[in-house]
Design goal:
Blueprint lengths: L2 E12 L5 E12 L3 E5 L6 H9 L6 E6 L2 E2 L10 E4 L11 H11 L4 H14 L15 H13 L5 E5 L7 H18 L2 E6 L2 H7 L2 E6 L2 E6 L1 H6 L4 H6 L4 E11 L2 E6 L4 E6 L6 E6 L5 E4 L5 E10 L3 E8 L4 E7 L13 E5 L6 E3 L2
Parallel strand pairs: 3-8, 3-9, 6-7, 7-8, 13-20
Antiparallel strand pairs: 1-2, 1-4, 4-5, 9-10, 11-12, 11-14, 12-13, 14-20, 15-19, 16-17, 16-19, 17-18
The structure holds adenosine-5'-triphosphate.
The site of adenosine-5'-triphosphate has 13 residues, from strand 2 and helix 1.
Amino acid sequence: MTVAVSAESLRKVYPGSPPVEALASIDLEIQDNEFFTLLGPSGCGKTTLLRLIAGFEHPTSGRLDMFGESLLESPPYKRPINTVFQNYALFPHMTVAENIGFGLQMLGTPKDSIKATVGEMMELVQMSQLADRQTSQISGGQQQRVALARALAPRPKILLLDEPLSALDFKLRKQMQLELKRLQTETAITFIFVTHDQEEALTMSDRIAVMSNGAIRQIGRPREIYDRPADRFVADFIGDTNFLSAEVISITGETAQLRLSSGQVVEAHANDGSQGKVTLALRPEHAQLTAEGAGVLAGTLREVVYFGTDTHLYVTLDDGDEFILRQQNAPTIDNSFTAGDRVGVTFPARAAQVLRD
Ligand code: ATP
């Protein structure tokens, strides 16, 4: 596999009083032809990392390479990288076709070649019908497609996308998520996508880097990040999670034996040699409600909320902690529990994950 972008001890401090350390010390490898997402809350440093890759900002220290060569001496316009911004930044007085061809024109590409590429790009984003329409007269979703086509037209090796779907309404955003994934697969260009929306990251990405406070907390495929979060921040940021206190009895390979505060012994998945008191993360859909006494945990069912496809069950455990379960409304699932019932909660071995501190 070829590495498209690599960062080593990459640090960015914005001057000021006090200075802001936007990136602490980033180590990262993004593969060629990968859909790679930087995911994290507002202010965690996602855009800063994107701007360093684009060349709009300079790092304070560290290495930043593209295809094995340092990017640091290369000005933005010499990097085979293009960016799609949140606000699209289209030229409103130009037509769809003129907007898409603009970058190529600036590069001095011959007219015939521009025409052919613009045609191809319009087909790729399904905008051929509106080629001669001014971009001030098309919808938000259509503007997004034009912005994408314009950024793809010079055939960059890497496309940076800074929250490009955030201005779209929910339904259109869903549609564009699939569209973006298709575009990335068809063009075989490396996409580096920035978002604070965990669902967006999970549905589109080959791999995700979860960031907080200028640092990368975990890099992994969507399933790894969701099922095997490395620490409490990642478990909390992505999806709903129950946290349980436990103590490690023993560890064999990636399986830990633990004692819960209720005294029950359970098995959980552990990434590294955790010891002593730990926190377990358990997804609501991985747990099941049982009769009292038959579960690993015991408590009182506080609330039952019916959602059509599934039901959310809120349990107050006997130690006072709140616990959420999500059960599919399949005919095989016992949904006869009602609020106020004494209940048990059970979960399969290794469904829980031991978190790093
Ligand atoms: P958002 O999702 O809100 O865009 P982000 O994760 O992209 O956030 P950055 O824009 O990279 O975060 O900002 C990281 C930190 O650096 C923040 O604390 C921000 O206030 C600070 N910052 C960003 N740009 C500058 C600047 N030009 N000068 C000083 N501080 C900055």
